Amino acid sequence: MKKNIVLIILLVASFTVNGQNFDSTVEKLIEENIDEIIELRHWFHQNAELSNREFKTAERIKNELIKIGYKPNIGIAKTGVVAILNEGKQGPVVGLRADIDGLPIKERVDIPWASKMTGVYNGEEVPVMHACGHDMHTAILLATAKILYELKDQIPGQVKFIFQPAEEGAPVGEEGGAELMVKEGVLKNPDVDAIFGLHIAAQLPMNKVYYKPRGFYASSSRFTIKVIGTQAHGGTPWLAVDPIIITAQIINSIQTIISRESELTKEPAVISFGKVEGGNRFNIIPNEVNLVGTIRSLDYGMRDYIKKRIIELSEGIAESYGGKAIVEIDDGADITYNDPEIMDRMLPSLKKSAGNENVILSNAKTLAEDYAYYLNEIPGFLFELGGYNTNEEREAPAHHTPDFFIDDSSMLLGVKVMTNLALDFLKSE
Hints:
Layout: H1 2-46, H2 55-68, E1 73-76, E2 80-85, E3 93-99, E4 118-121, E5 124-127, H3 134-150, E6 158-164, H4 177-183, E7 194-205, E8 209-211, E9 214-228, E10 232-233, H5 243-261, E11 269-278, E12 284-285, E13 288-297, H6 300-320, E14 324-331, E15 336-338, H7 340-354, E16 359-361, E17 365-368, H8 372-375, E18 380-388, H9 410-428
Parallel strand pairs: 3-6, 3-7, 7-18, 8-16, 9-17
Antiparallel strand pairs: 1-2, 2-6, 4-5, 8-18, 9-13, 9-14, 9-15, 10-12, 11-13
């Protein structure tokens, strides 16, 4: 009996020492590669590309993976790239994901590596920048892939690195993003047991991690409303059915769905209009006006009710003025549902990486992420990584704006967390 107890004590001590050595090795590898991580991030930022058009980005990802020693698969979900560590090795499989696309926004930040890229969006040439941090996500995952490759012989299982295009939404008429990746089998061969992903948060302080079990990010639906009236001269408005007046009434009334009809104490919900377009001359009342907007909700029942009311109000108001409204609503991302069991299980890994005091329970967000499609299939979670350097004088800009900026230094913790999540999950299976 005494011999067995001594043996157990020795085994525990050995495991502890090995674990500490493992952690210090990870730290050392991150420090050794920091300059390369930053260079990669700057390159991706300078070469931002729109959804389903990330050709240069995918090529650079592929080449970097090959340089490390991987044999990446390309062209998944159009421009996605996937690589597997320890392919064919027995044991659990963990997935790590990064999104790679930019946005049709002109950069206003005064940095040497600002984007000068352009692309075609809705038939128009537009400037393109990384205004949501996907350049950083990509660089973090490449660095994680490199570090784990160095440790591959000590890893009991496989790691699938998923570089996903079109998180911001595929162009109209095209498939894309996480939904298409899942459809094309990215979670199969080998079957992924759990998946982890991060999203940088430009307005949250760096060196902190934010998490939330269950509903974290909202569902996203895109709606269009075509308001049809009767055109006339601006000097004789009585001869018109004015679609601009109808549109104004529709916009104001739709906002009351949130302020007066939605049970916001249950879950948050948002309706936002992103585009109102109509007319071409100061003295002509146009024939039609087109609206585009988004619905965000953390409850599917609330989402369905909001959709129904948008249709009812738009059609009813237009008809009451003698016009017509045609409404189309397409569901985008589902609710990003973080599996509470696996989140609880991996919480020590987050705390080990960032420190107990820097791992913060978050509120739900009305942002949306197509990462939800992976979580619909397998357990996992998405967490936020703070990206705002509070020591700088510059203000923390919002995502999807021309002034979007993230401090390079925030990537260090991102690499550490993603590396530790993969290692700790595989060792605990």
